[in-house]
From TrEMBL:
Signal sequence, renumbered to the chain: none
Origin organism lineage: Bacteria, Bacillati, Bacillota, Culicoidibacteria, Culicoidibacterales
Entry protein name: Glycosyl hydrolase family protein
InterPro entries: GH, Glyco_hydro_1
Coiled-coil ranges (or none): none
GO cellular component, one term: cytosol
Family as reported in the entry's similarity comment: Belongs to the glycosyl hydrolase 1 family.
Amino acid sequence: MENGFPKDFLWGGALAACQAEGAYNVDGKSLTIPDVMRFNPKLDRTITKQLKITQESIDAAKAELDDTYYPKRRGIDFYHTYKQDIALMAEMGFKVFRYSVAWARVFPGGDDAEPNELALRFYDDVIDTIISHGMVPLITISHFDMPIVLIEKFGGWYNRKLVDLYLKYCDVLFNRYKGKVQYWVTFNEINMSAKAGPKTLGILDTGQENYEEMIFQGLHHQFVAAARATELAHAIDPENKIGCMVAYFTTYAHTCKPEDALEMQNEDRMRNMFYLDVQAGGHYPYYANTYFKRRGITITMAADDLAIIAAHTADYVGMSYYMSMIASSDAENLELTSGNVTNVLKNPYLEGSEWGWQIDPVGLRYTLNHVFDRYQKPIFILENSIGAIDTLNEDGTVHDPYRIAYLESHIREMKRAVEDGVDVIGYTMWGPIDIVSSGTSEMSKRYGFIYVDQDDYGAGTKRRYRKDSFYWYKDLIATNGEKL
Ligand code: BG6
């Protein structure tokens, strides 16, 4: 057992193209779901309200030339500022930088014969910049940025054709970045599909009777695509390490009532474990098959799908961890609070963030032990942090003790999990530079160590400022978390 973090622990941060790049229609890029997600400034911060994405809302967005209410179209203009922004990550001493490639840049037509060279040149330079600073690039192949063209031409992941299109895209990336990129994530938070089908699977809800079945069918296609991408990556470069990823919704029983424990088990299985059992364990678990049977869900599979899933499991388990929740057999009588993508039952022992997400550092240690126990595969924490309102002072400082407190307590628990014997290989804090929120499209929901002077409507100088947490994280990396 190690004392504290191993010497080669991968400290860093993570961003996604669709929340950072902006330049949504530049150099041939086609539209994605985030580009058509309208910002609702009247959002109640403590209750999650999903803005429904429909063909009508997509068409209305396409016709809207004023981008004021479509913040992801501008992001933080990382498309043009990546060199300076990545240099700031390096200044903090990052060992790894997680970033995503936008599928809609590389194949703007969805099924183009050739990839878009302009897009690839941009990603060449992003990756070379990361490497030039001595950081390891970790690339997410698909991060919540479903190309609209794949919805309109093929109906999204419900159509098996997407498996081949995705593999073609992976083939381009694996070959182009061979020897440069070795850490990959196939799909960001694949388990979000149950609550955010349009966003991750491109399957629009038009009131179909079998919508849930469609979601699981689309998901099956993603499972097959990820397994085949893992096979392909290993064939192109045996050094490649391919991760699966879930957003871990850690769930406790509300009381010691046995029925609450059963609810907890069900929640944990169908929200979290099912996805990992398939992608890290290599099989559809019995409880999921039972769930499908009870719900009348039939998943159409090709003859060798299950064999492919079994043969090409992920090399490491990736997870994001933000919050935890509770499960109860008497849920109707309990209070709700907002959570990542969905509302959850409130835990009386935990404080919430300004957006109501329940802050639970001990839950991280619990989760790491829970997941490692089951798969014994290395775990990479690919996202963790807190969204908060920051104030930029006149002297250019931003005092963010709440962010430091959140991160410090979580990293301390991660350290304890490492000391428990869990093989945690890295930690990429979410949103090291402020970006547009995925869920609400607010700029004012900030995660960064670096403040970006831009408001929800795109106004501001766009200048970057180091927050107090910037210096704190720099010191934490330099001392490998020894002070915790
Ligand atoms: C994760 C996503 O679910 O949560 C990120 O992978 C997202 O893209 C993050 O930004 C935080 O969520 P939000 O809605 O606060 O941006």
